[in-house]
Specification:
about 150 residues, mainly alpha, Multidrug-efflux Transporter Regulator, Chain: A, Domain 2, 2 domains, 3-stranded antiparallel sheet, DNA-binding transcription factor activity, 2Fe-2S
Length: about 150
């Protein structure tokens, strides 16, 4: 990739340039914009143009999605950042600390799920021999549909 000319530092980026620099498809950028996660302005030719701080916002979105944070939660976190300012290290620290508790709970749930994979899932099938002991008379159906033992924990 050619080195950036210092004169271009303030130049807004096209959607294609943002896609190339961020590693995100143009369609994903349009989706993020429709969800209010990023913003653009239109030039005289009605083409989207993005400030360079959008690259950091897209990076935050990508990392947060990668660790399983919902777009709704990402949007709420980004909405708390000052508009027009590039998210900085302090912002990222605050965002990531807010997500750590959720991630810890998800990790604990996944570990419990892993440890229970060879046990009854409480599906209500009544076809396994162990179900007479684990789910007699389909009593778990009173708790709701689906695999109750695993979903309830």
């Amino acid at each position: 990739m050619p080195r950036l000319d210092p004169a271009d530092i303030g130049r807004p980026l096209s959607v294609g340039e943002v896609a190339q620099r961020s590693g995100v498809a143009v369609s994903a950028l349009h989706f993020y914009e429709a969800r209010g996660l990023i913003h653009s302005v239109r030039n005289e030719g009605n083409q989207r143009r993005y400030a360079r701080d959008v690259l950091r916002r897209v990076a935050v979105i990508k990392v947060a999605q990668r660790i399983g944070i919902s777009l709704e939660d990402i949007g709420a976190a980004l909405a708390a950042l000052p508009e027009g300012r590039t998210p900085n290290a302090r912002d990222w620290t605050r965002l990531s600390k807010n997500w750590q508790q959720e991630l810890d709970a998800r990790i604990a749930h996944l570990q419990a799920l892993r440890d229970q994979l060879d046990d009854c899932i409480g599906c209500g099938c009544l076809s396994l021999g162990a179900c007479k002991l684990r789910n007699p008379l389909d009593s778990l159906s009173e708790e709701g549909p689906g695999p109750r033992r695993i979903l309830s924990e």
